[in-house]
Write a structure and sequence with these properties.
2 helices; 3-stranded parallel sheet
């Protein structure tokens, strides 16, 4: 069963795929980046914000290109990032890559 591994703490098998920055699977949204929270102010992104915004971004919308066209290369592989066991965009990638309908 594929899982998300922590680059710093876990033993990384050679077939695992790194999905952190600056890989093509890296999350472009960073904790602490500023986003609009009201019409008057900006607030920093939290870890959960980054994961949620990444999932919306990776799924894309009409005319945004197919960001998931290569998701099959992650299927059945352990994914490596720095966040695990905290919530991470790699959790979303793991779920998308291993969906039954791929």
């Amino acid at each position: 069963m594929p899982k998300v591994l922590n680059k710093r703490r876990d033993k990384i098998p050679p077939e695992a795929i790194y999905v952190g920055r600056p890989s093509k699977w890296g999350n472009p949204y960073k904790i602490g980046d500023k986003i609009p929270s009201t019409f008057k102010e900006l607030r920093p992104l939290t870890r959960i914000d980054c994961v949620v915004i990444h999932s919306l971004w990776i799924l894309g919308g009409p005319g945004e290109g197919d960001r998931l066209k290569d998701i099959g290369e992650l299927r059945g592989k352990d994914l490596v990032c720095w966040c695990s066991p905290l919530p991470c965009h790699a959790d979303i990638l793991l779920e998308l890559a291993n969906k039954e309908e791929l």
